[in-house]
Amino acid sequence: MKDVLVSIIIPVIKVNDFLRDETIPALLKQTFKDFEIIIVTDKISNEQFSKTKIIASWPRTGPADKRDLGVKKSKSEIIAFLDDDSYPEHDWLENALSIFKENQNIAGVCGPSLTPPQNNIRQKASGYVWSTWLGSGGAGTYRCAKSSRREVDDFPTVNLLVRKKDFNSVGGFDSHYWPGEDTKLCLDLTKKLGKKIIYDPGVVVYHHRREVFGPHLKQISRYAIHRGHFARIFPETSLRLGYLLPSFFVLGLFSIPIIFMFFPNSLLLFYSLVYTTSGLLLYLFLLFYTATGVYQKEKNIRLSGLVMLSIFITHLFYGILFIKGFFTPKLKK
Q1: Cα separation of 106 and 171, whole Å?
Q2: Which candidate, 4, 205, 211, 217, has a CA 20 to 30 Å from the CA of 317?
Q3: How far apart are the C-alpha atoms of 170 and 294, rounded to whole Å?
Q4: Which parts of the chain register pLDDT below 70?
């Protein structure tokens, strides 16, 4: 295969229906045509797709190792990362490449990963956790909703393009971390190399959400543990107020019964009750305000209520597991 300008790398366990029915067809409809698709699987596949090569990484490896292998096999200047359950807008590559042309100091380009309109109500509720101000917290709504163009220093690989030379300069992904290998890569690109990552709302990908509650909370739990761990070892991009707030929320809730147990008749209990009650009332107002915004957009009262409950439970899980991750000496690979 001749050299191309962009290599699109997708790590998977095996070729699935998302790839067959959505991702690859969407890539083949790109307005920019000079690209290759590299799918890295656990085991070799005999399936064939246009512009695509399938590489086996057996024995089984994680997403970071698969992406690193895909980069080694690529024939391009620009590497584009997607997940196997995502698909881009038709002008995704064209818009991203125009940003790279602006400045050689731009090492990466990224954009929003939106909830697909065909997702069911439980997936949409998960999507609103990610895309609303109250739900997303430290992650920022711009990751999962269109927002203004900006420079960022942390972004997931569901929609991230990087210059191959810069990727290789920092040694690629750190496979010890999953999830979180993308956070470490962005940290290296922006802090070690001093390069820029530009977020642009025109670089659009659609990403299927995990259903609430089980699959969604399983994903959130992994993110919370790694973000908490990163807050201690990589504070430059992870020790931020938005990531800490769910833990403060949880600590506030659990402090009342503890104070009541040890200081039942004290002013400490009185003031704790006042502050906690005030905080809960504010939180409930923000939940209702968020749900109202969802209803105005979707005209679905059931979805609005599900979003409220999903945000609350997400904050509880995230807040507890963030603390666990912060105090975990070393994460298992």
Answers
A1: 18
A2: 205
A3: 41
A4: 1-4, 333
pLDDT in tens, 126-166: 999 999 999 998 778 999 999 999 999 999 999 999 999 99
Domains of the chain, by residue range, sit at 6-112+147-211, 233-326
> Cα–Cα distance between 128 and 12 in angstroms, integer?
26
Q: Residue 102 CB: number of other CB atoms within 10 A?
A: 11
If phi > 0 it is left, if psi is from -120 to 50 it is alpha, else beta; for residue 133 that is: alpha
Q: Which long-range contacts (CB under 8 A, 24 or more apart) does 308-313 make?
A: 310/125, 310/126, 310/128, 310/129, 310/135, 310/212, 310/213, 310/216, 311/128, 311/129, 311/132, 311/134, 311/135, 311/287, 312/287, 313/212, 313/213, 313/217
Domain 6-112+147-211, CATH among 3.30.559.30, 3.40.50.10140, 3.10.129.10, 3.90.550.10:
3.90.550.10
Q: What does the radius of gyration of the chain's CA atoms come to, in whole angstroms? A: 21
The predicted pLDDT at position 3 comes to 60
194-210: pLDDT as tens digits: 999 999 999 999 999 99
Strand partners, 79: 7, 162
Whole-prediction pTM: 0.92
Structure tokens at 311: 């945000």
**Nearest-angstrom CA–CA distance, 114 and 201:** 11
**The tokens of 158 are what?**
């569901």
